[in-house]
Design goal:
Order of helices and strands: HEEEHEHEHEEHHEHHEHHEHEHHHEHH
Number of strands: 12
Largest sheet: 10 strands, mixed
Helix content: 25-40%
Shape: globular
Amino acid sequence: MSNTKKFASVAVGLGLVTLPVLTACGSTDSGGSADSKAVTLVSHDSWAVSKSVLKDFEKQSGYKVKVLKDGDAGQAVNKAILTKDNPQGDVFFGVDNTLLSRALDNGLFQSYEAKGSDLVLPEYRVDQGKHRVTPIDSGDICVNYDKAYFSEHKLTPPQSFDDLIKPEYKNLLVTENASTSSPGLGFLLGTAAKYGDGGGWQDYWKKLKANGVKVVDGWEQAYNDEFSGSAGGKKAKADRPLVVSYASSPPAEVIYADPKPTTAPTGVANGTCFRQVEYAGLLSNAKNTKGGKALLDFLLTKEFQDDMPLNMFVYPVREAAQVPPEFTKFGPQAKDPETMTPAKIADNRDQWVKSWTSLVLK
């Protein structure tokens, strides 16, 4: 969802809060936090919130928020599972639908129905019987293209998965490793949803490999070092005009540009999108459960949901939350993205990644 959220390092200079890594609170008796007025959020590296919004919560709730950032989403989830008996914090934010089953099957969260859950758009609601997680944001993993490249080469940008294996797009696409990257995994799941598991997605990836797809470890390398359409890629003299990124990446290119262009330098191939949803939950054995519940309630408030898009470059999940005009103009959500239930992902993810690795990387 990561959203998207990968632009958080840039956001520091724009008045957004990307809090430093902190050690977890110590334990006390009676199940309380060592500091009952502190509540600790564990997240991936891309968590960000406006200072004024965070201060509003702290003032209204009486809790001081501490944030422990723990790498990318996969790394953060795995560490949270390993430390679930003595958790590093009270709330975990950033487990997405590609990893949700792993967290739930390992008992990472305890039940809590956050205030405002009834205002979450129905398509994002999961685990309604137990309420172990709360939907917070959504985003679309999609192929982005460099408009200037395709204009200069008088070539129509690809718009679908099928287009990407056509000869005219040979050696143009860079994607992330599905075993190490959330968008890389999302792109793999998108192809599995599109072509099916009866050999369909495997055949597709054979053709994609034959058409010169380049695989790198993570989003930052793919987008900022390899993709010719990004601000970073231009500086690096990157030569790949297609990249697996997010539908919210073009708005980020506009918002962070100085001077700001009237149109985004990059576009989205809308027929290549996979819908990613991020959740938060109250950690099992949390030391400050009362503070954790208050923090989860806060994540669904209209104030936080309205603030979130321009901080983490994701879409809100609450009904009637505001979407920035830059998103509507330059990075609208896909109308018909590929989707997959967390249960199906759970049943197939590990084997699919193993097959993908053998097929594409060897």
